[in-house]
Amino acid sequence: MRPRVVDLFCGAGGFSLGFREAGFKILGGVDNHPAPAATYRNNFGVRVLEEDIKRVDAEDILSELGDPDVVIGGPPCEPFTAANAERRPDPLDRLYDDPTGRLVLHFIRLVGDLQPEVFVMENVPAILEGPLERALRREFERVGYDRVYFNVLQAVDYGVPSYRRRVFISNVRIRPEPTVDRPRTVWDAIGDLPEPDGSDIPNHELRPLSRRKLRRIRRLRWGQALNVIRGAKGEFKNWLRLHPWKPAPTVMGGSRFIHPFEDRLLTVREQARLMSYPDDHAFEGGYEAQYDQVGESVPPALARAIAEEVRERL
After folding, report:
1. Are 94 and 126 spatial neighbours (Cβ–Cβ below 8 Å)?
2. Residue 143 burial class via C-beta count within 10 angstroms: exposed 0-12, middle 13-18, buried 19 and up
3. Cβ atoms < 10 Å from Cβ of 92
4. Domains, the chain, ranges and CATH?
């Protein structure tokens, strides 16, 4: 019998897709945003609880989705990431006082009530800053998991053509061997796509831009950006012209990339390829919702490497 998975904060389903490709049965997900919930439902053909996770309990999951062997999910990273200039100065306030940060505690609550054989929670490594690692270890111990591992992985090591360093907190050690000999580049990922519009590939449409934006974009060289955003630590580039022969920078919910050779934004499909999504995984909602779903995902290729490690330990 295939091991069963429930995905909390399921979003567009990148995390679940990797587990499905590794042979797991996806029971369903939880997400209170309509566009990603529709994306997940349409691509997996399963139930999505469109509820605020604060109002979801174990009985809801067991009765509506089923009894999981594995619980996965990625609570929002905004309270913890250094890209957020407004994150709380005290690390513990990010977890216990910030309303969005407290969603991590609801993930832990549901894991404790469901008692899956394995759980895997994804977030930015900054969730471990200062006393946070000890606090998270204590919270998982409180719900019955005495051993907790903080597995920091770089997506580019697993065939994802963009840099993305994330921590996967689990009750099993997850250290998959790299799956590629060399990093995949932007052009490896998008070079074979047809021109946007007129193609039957979903989410591969041009986004119209103003004349002013086009004039500014034409002046950009590889690695240059229209906008520089100041975060809590350092600066982050947005509307950046990608270098074709290198992996892309981290794809984020608010990030937009310029094509390496053409004066236009990447399409949603091109951006999805930078996260290792297959072309038949279609995204629902408006332009901005689609871009955000891609950037807020766990890359499927990385998720599959994790899932194969988890399956060995079940």
Report:
1. no
2. middle
3. 15
4. 4-178+295-313 (3.40.50.150), 186-281 (3.90.120.10)
- Does pTM top 0.70 for this prediction? yes
β-bridge pairing 149-154 and 165-170:
antiparallel
In whole angstroms, how far apart are CA 226 and each of 52, 117, 164, 197, 240?
A: 36, 47, 22, 25, 7
Among 302, 8, 44, 289, which residue's Cα sits nearest to residue 166? Answer: 302
Q: Yes or no: say if 150 and 135 are a contact pair by the CB < 8 Å rule.
A: no
pLDDT per residue over 212-236, tens digit each?
999 999 999 999 998 887 776 777 7
Residues tagged active-site: 77
Tokens found for residue 302: 């990385």
Report the greatest alpha carbon distance in the chain. 58
Rounded distance, CA 161 to CA 159, Å?
6
User: For the chain, what's the residue count?
Assistant: 314
The pLDDT tens digits of the residues spanning 180-197 come to 999 999 999 999 999 998
Evaluate whether 286 touches 202 at the Cβ level (below 8 Å). no
